[in-house]
Amino acid sequence: MLQERRLNSKGEQYVVGPTGTPLTLKDLPPSNTDRWVIRRKAEVVAAVRGGLLSLDDALATYRLTAEEFLAWQKAIDKWGMQGLRTTRIQTYRS
After folding, report:
1. CB 22, CB 14: distance < 8 Å
2. pLDDT tens-digit series, residues 9-67
3. How far is CA 91 from CA 11, 67, 74, 82, in A?
4. Whole-prediction pTM value?
5. Is the pLDDT of residue 88 over 80?
6. CA-to-CA distance for 14 and 23, rounded, in angstroms?
7. Residue 85: its pLDDT value, please?
8. How far apart are alpha carbons 25 and 41 in whole angstroms?
9. 59 FRET partner, CA 20 to 30 A, in 25, 47, 70, 91?
10. d(Cα 50, Cα 26) in Å, to the nearest integer?
11. Bridge partner list, 22
């Protein structure tokens, strides 16, 4: 489900992030991210869905497995951003 290409006033491509604000490549979490909070996971999913970042690039940049990324995507689709909470994983997994 790719969105149309959007450019901000600086000519940078962006997608609408999980909080409703524009998200550019420079706004994504750093590649050395070890602590994956809900917002960061949702930003990476939004970037891939919006075509800002390819799935292969996301997996390589963030050292994720395809299964991990797809689990994030499925959780967002089913329960919204709250589905990404690791402390409530048993509640959301079914």
Report:
1. yes
2. 898 999 999 999 999 999 999 999 989 999 999 999 999 999 999 999 999 999 999 99
3. 42, 19, 14, 11
4. 0.85
5. no
6. 5
7. 86
8. 14
9. 91
10. 15
11. 16
Tokens of residue 67, six digits: 């299964």
Long-range contact set of residues 75-84: C-beta below 8 Å, sequence gap at least 24:
76/42, 76/45, 81/18, 81/38, 81/39, 81/42, 82/38, 84/38, 84/41, 84/42
- Which token pair is 71? 């689990």
CB 1 within 8 A of CB 31: no
C-alpha angle 83-16-36 in degrees, rounded to nearest 5? 40
Quick one: tokens of 72?
């994030």
Query: DSSP letter at 28?
Result: S
Say which amino acid occupies 47.
Answer: A
User: Phi then psi for 31, rounded to 5 degrees?
Assistant: -65, -20
Q: How far is CA 77 from the centre of its chain?
A: 12
